Amino acid sequence: MNSTVLLNKLGRYGAIGVLAAAVHTGVLLFLGSGIALYLANPIAFLAASIAGYFGHALVTFREETGGRRFARRWLLLQYGVNLSVCALLPLVQAPMLVLVFTPTILNALIWNRAATFSRDQQISAGNQALHADDLGLTPGVDQAILALMSTGQLDGASLLVNGPSATSAVSAWKEIASRQPLTLHLCLSEGPTLEHCQNLPASFGQLLLASFWPPQGRQLRPQLKRAIRHQIQRYQELTGESPQRLDGHQHIHLVPLVLDVVLQQREIRWVRTTSEPLPSNLPLKLWLSAVRNGGLLKWLVLQLLTALARPRLRTCGIDTNPHSQVCFSQAALPVKRWRPLSVH
User: Domains in the chain, please, with CATH?
Assistant: First the structure.
């Protein structure tokens, strides 16, 4: 960053800082005559934080944000830090310079980090590939995926080898995307039950519990091996190739017990993981829905399973994607956005 750009950004930062301070002072004076200072001050801090949140995103760091606001978590972080610091520093009898400059320095660090986060998100989005799941599920789903692929709106898809329309889906795929191999979409918790695996649990949760209960894990492992080998062989029958890439329906492949078996499959050279950042700029209604319906808990579980899986994948020399994100296409298909795929 050259000196002219830096000075310009510092000028904008200072202007927004002065604006936030003016908002704080104005709100404090307005409320101070009617309510106690200890109540008026946090409200004034909140008003100043909101002014800084929008001002720094839209003005100071507009090059990094593209003129969009920061994720709301940065507002919460900045507000919480300001309240905590301004409450604690007087208690330790900090010098006046510390009282004045500590919040200023912390605010600069927080907003700069928020800008870097916004810039990295935009760069990451520009480098990501779009990938659709569930090819072979139904003719309608197949048609939507194939239409998106034929118009260049998709970079790949995952095949449900036991899906009702898998055979016709693969034939159509070869006609429009013969050079793009499909990913094996491992399915163990839904769909047609294999005759030799009828006793497999019917849910992600049951397999997850079995991963940490050795007696049940030992009992299920042979069935899992048969089910996974069957789907690999079925993929070979349908496509004429061995599957090198694998992801899982309902992320079932990240369950430790299932991953144990996946890592033993010599064909697999790439496995999808789910290191997904919390989404930005979602309406509050959707956040409440995510908490109420267990979406936030699911996100936490998947982050933990990914953290456990990645060292094991590296040890086995298996590639994965650094980041991924689930979105929805105009055809209402679940589409995964991830970094470019790589296979040894």
Answer: 3-125 (no CATH), 127-338 (3.20.20)
